[in-house]
């Protein structure tokens, strides 16, 4: 049976990708696609010819409440307010915002600068990283889809942080394409400011830091600290993370490669590479490409991790979680790209 699905925030960068993927998913009946600015217009105004033959509705429309499954592609804060209503109606919600990723409401207050709008739901949310929470996701009703930087970083570090092969104090430098900031129209994201430019921002207090620390600490079984230096890159989409951690043991390049290969043997969307990853190979795909490199001279491990922020870093990962939750093939509707 097909799930009746609603997408809210469908005009945003991640909402567009969720809508595109779900409109070709055999287990989905798209019932409501919501956008405040496009309500009443046909989907084809945004998605072009071949879009499902339906109109955008308003984010508060009753047909959303009637759906079994809701994908929320809204900014944090706005997302939690609507989700508390849908959860009271026992819907299954995939939240692409940051609202249900941090388990600690005080940490949310600290990093997101406002009190959590629905803290009582935090205990019910499952962090939507299939490579970590595959079994939990099969039963979850509130799925907190990870951020794009955390997905690239956590996947890069998991094989060594989980096994205690590196010290629990890591440095991550990462570059994001401009779509990582969403459709907002601030001057700093305009073409002339971004094109031919590269700069770091929010060092060392980017809001994805506590999310990475939370999940890496859970995996390690001890406190893990992350120093994070994000950068705004002059390209539309993609995350390229360069991670550096101190090795606890001497290990050859061949052995670390084998360790990563074995760790991700059954992961549908993580590829362990022998060459340095390139954004052009993952752009438009649900894949994360990872390469671990041992620096024998300094005793450090450098991990390169690349993905598309809108797909494996957002929409594709949410659909991967949907596939697990509703017993579809994990890669259903997700084998596309690169482009
Ligand atoms: N961009 C990324 O790479 C990325 C990756 C992972 C997670 N995320 C998260 O995913 C969410 C969506 O990101 P995005 O990049 O798609 O953002 P976006 O491009 O700015 O789109 C968000 C959409 O939500 C709607 N909206 C904005 N404010 C709203 C409000 N107060 N109430 C109801 N609707 C509102 C707007 O559409 P209408 O006005 O048409 O309704 C807007 O197009 C965010 O929470 C973001 O942090 C983004």
How would you characterize the overall build of this protein?
With 339 residues, this protein is of the alpha/beta class. The chain folds into 2 domains: 3-146 and 313-325, 3-Layer(aba) Sandwich (Rossmann fold), CATH 3.40.50.720; 149-309, Dihydrodipicolinate Reductase, domain 2. Helices cover 31% and strands 21% of the residues. The protein has helices spanning 13-22, 44-47, 62-65, 78-88, 105-112, 130-137, 148-161, 191-194, 209-220, 253-263, 279-282, 311-325; strands at residues 3-8, 28-34, 69-72, 92-95, 125-127, 142-144, 169-176, 199-200, 225-232, 239-246, 270-272, 288-295, 300-307. The strands form 2 sheets. Strands 8-9-7-10-13-12-11 form a 7-stranded mixed sheet. A 6-stranded parallel sheet has the order 2-1-3-4-6-5, with helices on both faces. Strand 5, helix 6 and strand 6 (142-144) form a beta-alpha-beta unit. Residues 9, 11-15, 35-38, 59, 73-76, 78, 96-98, 147-148, 179-180, 182-184, 309-310, 313-314 line the site of NADP nicotinamide-adenine-dinucleotide phosphate. The site of NADP nicotinamide-adenine-dinucleotide phosphate (NAP) has 30 residues, from helix 1 and helix 12.
| String of helices and strands | EHEHHEHEHEHEHEHEHEEHEHEEH
Q: Could you tell me the radius of gyration in angstroms?
A: 19 Å
Estimate the global geometry from the Cα principal axes. globular
Main beta sheet strand tally, sense and closure? 7 strands, mixed
- The poorly predicted ranges are none
Number of helices: 12
Distance separating the two termini: 32 Å
CATH homology superfamily of the largest domain: Dihydrodipicolinate Reductase, domain 2
Ligands bound here?
Answer: NADP nicotinamide-adenine-dinucleotide phosphate
CATH architecture of the largest domain: 2-Layer Sandwich
On the 0-100 scale, what is the average pLDDT? 97
Q: Domain count, please report it.
A: 2
Q: Enter the CATH topology name of the largest domain.
A: Dihydrodipicolinate Reductase, domain 2
Strand residue percentage:
15-25%
Which structural class best describes the helix and strand composition?
alpha/beta
Strand order of the largest sheet: 8-9-7-10-13-12-11
Helix content: 25-40%
The CATH class of the largest domain is identified as Alpha Beta
């Amino acid at each position: 049976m097909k799930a009746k699905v609603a997408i809210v925030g469908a005009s945003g960068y991640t909402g567009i990708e969720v809508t595109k993927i779900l409109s070709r998913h055999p287990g989905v009946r798209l019932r409501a696609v919501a956008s405040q600015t496009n309500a009443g217009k046909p989907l084809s105004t945004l998605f072009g010819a071949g879009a499902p033959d339906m109109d955008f509705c308003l984010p508060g429309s009753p047909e959303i409440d009637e759906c079994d499954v809701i994908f929320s592609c809204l900014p944090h804060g706005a997302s939690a307010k609507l989700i508390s209503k849908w959860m009271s109606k026992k819907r299954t919600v995939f939240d692409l915002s940051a609202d249900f990723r941090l388990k600690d409401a005080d940490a949310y207050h600290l990093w997101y600068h406002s009190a959590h709008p629905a803290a009582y739901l935090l205990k019910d949310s499952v962090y939507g990283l299939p490579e970590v929470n595959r079994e939990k996701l099969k039963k979850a009703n509130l799925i907190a889809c990870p951020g794009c930087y955390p997905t690239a970083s956590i996947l890069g570090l998991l094989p060594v942080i989980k096994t205690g092969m590196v010290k629990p104090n890591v440095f991550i430098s990462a570059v994001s394409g401009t779509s990582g900031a969403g459709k907002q129209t601030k001057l700093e994201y305009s073409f002339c400011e971004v094109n031919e430019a590269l700069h770091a921002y929010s060092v060392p207090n980017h809001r994805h830091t506590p999310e990475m620390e939370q999940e890496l600490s859970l995996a390690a079984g001890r406190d893990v600290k992350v120093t994070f230096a994000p950068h705004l890159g002059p390209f539309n989409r993609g995350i390229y993370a360069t991670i550096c951690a101190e090795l606890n043991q001497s290990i050859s390049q061949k052995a670390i490669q084998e360790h990563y290969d074995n760790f991700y043997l059954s992961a549908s969307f993580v590829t362990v590479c022998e060459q340095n990853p390139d954004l052009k190979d993952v752009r438009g795909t649900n894949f994360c490409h990872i390469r671990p490199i041992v620096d024998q001279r300094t005793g450090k491990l450098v991990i390169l991790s690349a993905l598309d922020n809108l797909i494996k870093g957002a929409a594709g990962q949410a659909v991967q979680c949907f596939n697990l939750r509703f017993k579809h093939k994990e890669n259903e509707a997700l084998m596309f790209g690169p482009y």
